[in-house]
Design a protein that fits this description.
Blueprint lengths: L4 H5 L2 E5 L12 H4 L4 E11 L3 E11 L8 H11 L8 E4 L1 H7 L12 H15 L1 E9 L4 E8 L1 E4 L10 E5 L1 H8 L4 E5 H6 L2 H13 L5 E6 H8 L8 H17 L3 E10 L2 E8 L6 H4 L11 H9 L3 H10 L2 H18 L8 H13 L7 H10 E2 L5 H15 L3 H4 L9 E4 L8
Antiparallel strand pairs: 1-9, 2-3, 2-14, 3-5, 4-8, 5-6, 7-8, 7-13, 10-12, 11-12
Helix pairs in contact: 8-10, 9-10, 12-13, 12-14, 14-15
Length: 426
């Protein structure tokens, strides 16, 4: 018997169609985790007016970025899009997120290694700035010049806290993802089983094979360097070996039926790929089901306060998600900060009374909680050097004024660069 639709949905990730065309950082962690670095990649698309065109992307990583962080990016997007009308805010406990993503189970203790890795990945992802001069806009049906971050966050300073973590998606990025033509879903359980290079290839193929059964020819160097993130300095022989390992793994998992690397001329290799039976399975297509209150991260938070499943579901049907999320955080923060004596009756009674009055416009969030929010709000203000670097990257892709052109730093054609190398010495 196959998995239930709810079980399947919990192992579904969401990929953004333009982002999976290229790597976001090098695969080598020794290069990708360098702070204040820039990764450059490119891919081709067809323009109705200009024909075949190359899109150039820059990924500015002030805190570095790991290829393993992409699991959390695609997973958090999927969790945000669980509801029928998703908002660009996700309020959820780390326990709920990691359990939904299959990284921990109900028996895993709180505050372990997985929680620390999750928090560190969120910190790195939140600092990323992305620039692309040919990003596909699904709402307008055209390629456009774009610049955005992924998200901002606000977390309790104590990772053992029961309070929800807040993820606020960048409005430009979330607009692209939310559109039906701007994202695709994939099996997160299969994705987790793969190494980071094979994960990127799996997402790229999931996009390609959604529209066709085979890919006639793709250059080996483009796939290895731009799509998967291997170093451009690798010898062709090494690229073939590394790409072949990824292909073999996806053939074993039936994502590919076969693959072939052929040489067309000295130094030029192309790869032919055929879609595997994985994409034909009924389970692969059954991605959605009706949303239930118990599938919401808010449900888990209400249970933490002390409500039963039935009461938590009833509250979610009666009040807005944003209102419940705010007062749930206030209630849990009060319990952790002031203890049980803060509540006249119980945390549940305080919560229900506050939510009902707030819904009528007769109660606002307490001052102490507003101050706590300010302290916990994580911002990533760039240094003067960082702001100048980001301006130069935008100028390179989007054009600079004549007086500025001499000052725009030369970035390597592909791959990684240290921020310091992008500045002109005066």
């Amino acid at each position: 018997m196959g998995r239930s639709s709810t079980a399947l949905r919990r192992t579904t990730g969401v990929g953004q169609l333009s982002l999976v065309e290229h790597a976001l950082c090098p695969l080598d962690a020794r290069r990708s985790l360098v702070e204040n670095s820039v990764y450059r990649s490119e891919y081709s698309y067809y323009s109705p007016t200009a024909g075949k065109t190359t899109a150039k992307a820059h990924v500015f990583c002030p805190l570095g970025l790991s290829a393993a962080d992409e699991l959390y990016l695609w997973g958090l997007l999927a969790l945000t899009l669980l509801t029928p009308e998703p908002e660009p805010q996700l309020f959820a406990s780390p326990y709920w997120c990691l359990r939904q993503l299959g990284i921990i189970n109900r028996e895993t203790k709180r505050g372990g290694r997985q929680y620390q890795q999750f928090a560190e990945a969120i910190k790195r992802l939140s600092a990323v700035s992305y620039i692309n001069d040919g990003f596909y806009d699904p709402l307008r049906g055209e390629h456009r010049r774009v610049s955005f971050h992924f998200f901002s966050y606000s977390l309790p300073t104590d990772l053992d806290s029961c309070r929800s973590w807040r993820i606020s998606w960048d409005p430009v990025f979330f607009e692209f993802v939310k559109a039906a033509a701007g994202h695709f879903r994939f099996d997160l359980a299969l994705y987790r089983e793969l190494d980071t290079a094979s994960r990127r290839l799996f997402l790229f193929l999931s996009k390609v094979f959604a529209r066709r059964t085979h890919l006639k020819a793709i250059r080996l160097e483009h796939l290895a360097v731009n799509v998967l993130g291997f170093s451009s300095t690798l010898a062709t022989r090494e690229m073939k070996l590394k790409v072949n390992r990824c292909l073999a793994k996806l053939i074993d998992m039936a994502v590919l039926s076969d693959a072939e690397i052929t040489r067309t001329s000295p130094g030029n290799f192309f790869i032919r790929l055929n879609r595997g039976p994985y994409y034909e399975s009924a389970e692969r297509r059954a991605h959605t089901c009706d949303a239930r209150p118990e599938d919401s991260p808010l449900h888990d938070t209400l249970l933490t306060i002390g409500f039963s499943d039935t009461a938590a579901a009833r509250l979610q049907r009666k009040y807005s998600h944003r209102l419940l999320a705010e007062w749930a955080d206030i209630t849990l923060a009060a319990r952790e900060r002031f203890g049980s004596e803060f509540f006249r009756k119980s945390p549940m009674a305080y919560f229900v009374d506050s939510v009902s009055k707030a819904a009528e416009g007769n109660r606002t969030a307490p001052d102490w909680w507003m101050e706590l929010q300010k302290v916990e709000s994580q911002t990533h203000e760039l240094s003067l050097e960082g702001r100048e670097l980001f301006t130069r990257l935008q100028a390179e892709l989007f054009g600079a004024a004549p007086a500025e052109e001499q000052a725009v730093a030369q970035v390597p054609a592909k791959g990684m660069a240290r921020a310091g190398s992008l500045f002109v010495t005066r």
